[in-house]
Structures are given as structure tokens and as C-alpha cells.
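Following up on my earlier thread - several people asked me to post the actual chain instead of describing it. Fair enough. Here it is, all 512 residues.
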Amino acid sequence: MPKWLDNAIFYEIYPQTFRDSNADGIGDFQGILEKLDYVRDLGCNAIWLNPCFASPFGDAGYDVADYYRAAPRYGTNEDLKRLFEEAHRRGIRVLLDLVPGHTSWEHPWFKASMEAERNEFTDRYVWTDDIWERPEGMDCLRGISQRNGACAVNFFSNQPALNYGYYQVEKSWQQSVDAPGPRATLEAMKDVMRFWLRMGCDGFRVDMAMSLVKNDPESKGTIALWQEVMDFLGREFPDAAMISEWGEPDKSLAGGFHMDFLLHGGPSHYDDLFRCAEPFFSSRGRGDASKFAGQYQRYVEKTGGKGLICIPSGNHDTARLAPLLGEEELKIAFAFLLTMPGAPFLYYGDEIGMRYVEGLTSVEGGFHRTGARTPMQWDDSVNAGFSAAPADRLYIPVDPSPDRPTVQAQMADPNSLYHEIKRLISIRQAHEALQSNASVSFVYARENAYPLAYVRRSGSEEMLVILNPSASDASFPMTFAPWEPIYCFGGSAKFSPGLVSVPASSAGIYRL
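Reply from S.P.:
Thanks for posting it. Predicted structure:
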């Protein structure tokens, strides 16, 4: 695993709405470059950049039309290369978002695959042999050309599925993973990775990494595919990092990925903490972290403690933590996010408590996700400092609330969420036991009970983290030890023989 991941803290940037430098209403590479010092000063040393390749933007760039060209609305390939260079100069790594499972229907590969006559792209996508037969379990496109067949799509209709083969071949049109078409697809994606790694990017976050090989119920074919990719990267680009959107760390890490982050869906119980009717981190004190802790521990055991299991504050697919949680609740939630194993992921704006904006018209396939993709709120100037364009030309409207949080206001307030997160990042980076690879063991994670407590260990350093977001005091049994507080929010826990008493609405980190 690349050494730089040991203490990586990622900042996810949705380029469309981060910073617009040329007043066209859409964020761009130059805008990101202008804010690199902000990212560095917050304490983040890595960036995950959402898709920025040429696209018709039917799905916000996740429908790629040219893997080798930056989207002109953001800038040129040279601009992106300069962004890599300027980030590196500040000690920041940059991951691009790789979308290997599908392209746009405007991609030249797909247009060639639609032709009735066989060519080198005929088998680049998943096609059936007959217009009347659809791929089982998948939506499809058909009747769109003279080719006799239906083409499988991933998610939206404008995203035809690339062909990496079927692990269990059951029909005449299904190809094995070793067939020429699937092999050509995989080699083409390796070439895409080579291109951008040579340009200066530091690796990739891989969209829908679990979905490539079809009819693969135990993911054995998909795991083998990624093992091959990781072997190639290990030989040619050993310092490149690979992050999977998988949500099952035991499978992702078996495939060779360096890290997998827990998804809002799936079996992780991640949503129990932040996004459910009664989140654990709500001060109402009606939440439950026990199922999350149990599942997380099982993931650790299944992976033999290897690889990073990461927990994001959110991303472009989820509702923001605010207003589900208030600012004081968010401070305790971030004490959790920044003291757990794996590399933390901060979604842009979460560090100032940007809110999910209700009722927005869908933009570029965002639908319900659009409210989590609003422009970054830098200051109290026009359009919150995001853009000098007229408000009606903005990619997505700015949060209209008169009390919307801004970077400017949060920086000026020493008690703000921004400063609390910056403080927590500094503490994490100062202690190896709080960083990515240190072990974790839950010492108190009872059903429908508070607090949540766990121990992080690395070498001779041992840290106890206690989180009580509830508005009521709490306690839990624990063998007495002389724990020294190194961080306290909302008051310090009291240790007595056999019992720890924890104040309401508090978070603490204690060193043995």
C-alpha cells in the first residue's frame, strides 16, 4: 500500500459547485487551484475529484464521452495537469474518479458498437443477440440502430454497460471474462489509468467497482479482475492509490484495493449513525450504534485487519449531515469520523455545516441528490462567493437561507465547527494511534445505549475515544486505568474503579 495513505485525510470536491473562476456559473479547475491553500490549511492532504472528463453530463459526468479529455467547461488537460502540480507543491495528493462500468451513449466506442457490421468495438458493451431479448436483471437500450440486439445499461438509460464478461455464462450472447471483447475492455481501461497517472494524478476512486463482471453472485470474477489491475499498477505505478465504491470491504480488499469506504446503502449500518429517523449522533439519545460497531468489527476480522475501511462524512450521492444534525451534534460526529481507522473523507462544505437544500429541481441527473450538490459557501458576497455569474446562470442555486454558514464566518468564530474539525485533524495527525492503520476495538457499544467507546492502538500508543452525543449524562463499566485527556469537547469523562462517567453532549480522546 502506498505509504502516503497512512495519514491521508481526503477532501471530496464536486467540481461543478466548488468555485467558479470565470463567471460562467459552473466551477472549474482554476477555481479549485485558487482554493488549494484552503484545503491544505484545513488539514486535508488529499483530494478526491468527482468526474471531470468530457461528457454530455446526463449524470453529472458519470456518463463519460472521452476518458482522455478533460471536460472543456472545467478547463483543458493542461489545466488539470497544472492542478496536479500545484496540489503536489502543497503536499496534497489528487485522486480522479474513474467510471469503468459504463460510458455515455455518446462515447465513440458505443457508437461503433451499434453498427450492424462487426468491428473492434462490437463486443465492448453487453449486447444480447436479439432485439427482443433483454439482459436479465438489467435495463436496456434497443431499437436504436440497425444492430440486432439489446444493450444493457447501468442505472440511467444514457449509460450503456461496458463488457467485462460473465462469470457464469448461461446464454449464447454472454461472453466469458477471458473472451476477446471483455479482455479488450479491460486493457482499454488500463490504458486510461496509465494516461492520467503519467499526467500526474495519484490514483483513482473507482465508481461501482463491484459491478463489472456480470452474473457473479459471489464476486469471484470481479475480485479476480481487480487483482489483475492491482498487479499491473503495482508494477508500473506502485505509489498509486485505489479506492473502491464497493461497500463490502472483505471483497474489495480481497480484490487488492487499498481502501473501501462504507456506503449509505448495504449492510454496514453506517446510516444508523447519521441518516435515519433517530441517528445515534442526535442529542435526542434514541439512536443505536451497536449494529454498526458489530458489523465494522466483522469487516475487520474478515479482512484480517488489512486494508483501510473508510467512513465518509457524506458524498455527492447522500443527504448532507446538516440539518439532520445541529452544529454541536456535528462536532461530536466529526470526533468519531476523525478518530476511526481508515482514511477520513470530508465532503466539501461539511466542514462548515452546509445544509441539504430541499425542493430543488434536478440538475444533470441529481434528482434527490441535487440538494447535496449546491455551491460552496465561501463568504457573504454575491452567490456566497462561489461565482460572479448572475444567480439564474448558476449550475445549482445557492442555499437561499439568510443564516447559511460560510467559510468566512466560520473562520472568524473560534468556537465554530470549522475550527473544531481543524483541531481534530491536527490531533489525529499528531498521534499514530489515531491514524489510518492503527487497530480499533469497541469497549462499549450496547444496543440502544450511550456512550460509544473504543480503543485505538499502534505500537506503544493507546487512545480511548468516548462519544456521548445524547443530551443526558451516561456511564459504562470499564477496568480502571490512568487515562489522560488530550481532547475534550463538552466536558471530560470521570474515571473511577470499574466505571466511567460521561457528561452529556461530549466527546473525548484519552491517552493511556
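The CA atoms of residues 84 and 200 lie 6 Å apart. That should answer part of your original question.
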